[in-house]
């Protein structure tokens, strides 16, 4: 067997949450004055609007089909959730080396999704939860778009 050789390796010191800057100054277009979650929710509801995107609505079937095919073809637990401005696909996977068609399906979800979260899947008897969000609407907060599809 040939001797293995490391060509490149990097390790970086991770910043701690306490080290992040918390004083962002007054350059923000939005200066919320809430202190509790309920106040935040009211602020979002009052200052938020959504505009349908014909292109995004037309392409939603690709997202839905990929989630359906991934789950059914490989017996992977999945939840597809529709909400007012789009869909959320929760894919529950175990740590593994994914190759071939399953890798292609996951790649499609990564490309189509607007937001991706990697979460602990142990509550659903899985190692990891991939949560993919697909928006069918442009969402604005005080006339500033929060969903940039470009």
UniProtKB/TrEMBL annotation:
Provide the species name. Answer: Lachnospira intestinalis
Name-wise, this protein is Uncharacterized protein
Query: Which domain of life does the UniProt lineage start with?
Result: Bacteria
């Amino acid at each position: 067997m040939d001797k293995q050789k490391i060509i490149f390796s990097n390790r970086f010191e991770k910043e701690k949450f306490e080290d992040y800057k918390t004083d962002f100054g007054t350059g923000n277009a939005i200066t919320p004055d809430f202190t509790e979650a309920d106040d935040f929710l009211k602020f979002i509801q009052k200052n938020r609007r959504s505009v349908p995107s014909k292109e995004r609505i037309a392409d939603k079937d690709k997202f839905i089909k990929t989630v359906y095919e991934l789950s059914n073809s490989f017996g992977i637990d999945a939840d597809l959730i529709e909400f007012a401005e789009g869909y959320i696909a929760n894919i529950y996977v175990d740590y593994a080396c994914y190759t071939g068609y399953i890798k292609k399906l996951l790649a499609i979800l990564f490309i189509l999704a607007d937001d991706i979260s990697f979460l602990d899947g142990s509550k659903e008897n899985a190692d990891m939860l991939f949560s993919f969000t697909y928006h069918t609407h442009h969402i604005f907060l005080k006339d500033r778009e929060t969903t940039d599809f470009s």
